[in-house]
Amino acid sequence: MKITDQPTIARYYQALLARDASYVGSFVVAVKTTGIFCIASCRARKPKLENVDFYSTIKDALYAGYRPCKVCCPTENASAAPALVRQALALLKAEPKRRLSDSELRQRGLSPASLRRWFQQHYQMTFQSFQRMYRVNLALTELKSGRALLDTALDSGYQSLSGFNYMLRQITGASATQQQERGMIVMKRLTTPLGPMFVCASERGVCLLEFVERRALETELAELQRRLGATVVAAENTHTEAAEQQLGEYFAGQRQRFELALDTPGTEFQRRVWQTLTEIPYAQTRSYQQQAERLGNAQAVRAVARANGANRVAIVIPCHRVIGKDGQLTGYAGGLERKRWLLAHEQQFSD
Predict the structure, then answer these.
(1) What is the tens place of the pLDDT at every residue in 190-222?
(2) Please, what CATH class does the domain formed by 268-349 belong to?
(3) Is residue 73 among the annotated active site residues?
(4) Cα–Cα distance measured from residue 189 to residue 122, given in angstroms and rounded to the nearest whole number
């Protein structure tokens, strides 16, 4: 989204002049005279205010036709957490069951306002809400591992099971006993050259890999929870660790085929389409028509396109390799510029 609110533009421009790293991820600035876009902390010479546009995300700037700055490398660095966020997360992980108040954050030289802004931008919640969810997720993990319910409740700071159950119902919609019977989907945020992504995995395998700003992400997560009978928690397991490693190798040009366990609920037809996607060789493309023909139904082009659009595991299930019959790039949930980048990346590292 292009930012048009004048007070916001004035604040962002001052942050740009000051190279304020706490604003990294809050906006990107596009320079109309050069056609490039940068992050707040860019070291390049600062443009005049009348020569810039501000956008909420990298995707918005790419859609507007701007290309990444070679000085600040926004597609690589805009998604990296700034130092104050890394420090706050380190404090949280060191003592996950202790609440960090705003006054304590200030005593440690951390700005609660900057943390709030960054977490609202990247997680759609405040840092205090993130802390609360982190403690809930830790409790759920302990319950899943077989720890006694009363011990988990008391260790989480609750004086009774009723208070603990009330908190779980408010946040997850299920009691502690119900949570013990449900599955768990762990979710982790990854940094990639194309912007941040969320990877989710059940005990069986990766079930989602999407760019964080995808509009349908909330709907996809709700659908996964329903289909898998599971609760999404901010954590990681062996499947998310493998996905992070292999995705890093892919972006480095060191991997052409993924070897990940997948857990992708869908209709029989959708699963067949997704399987056919994985059979498209690295650095090659297929049309929707060709995909339909490979499935044995040349008339099912639109159905194939819809199933492609329902793919929740980007890159690993490579729907970016499907193009129009005329060779033109067509719809991609991550944006056509990302699709173009992925295809060019694979061409660069193909054998």
Answers:
(1) 888 777 789 999 989 999 999 877 767 878 888
(2) mainly alpha
(3) no
(4) 9
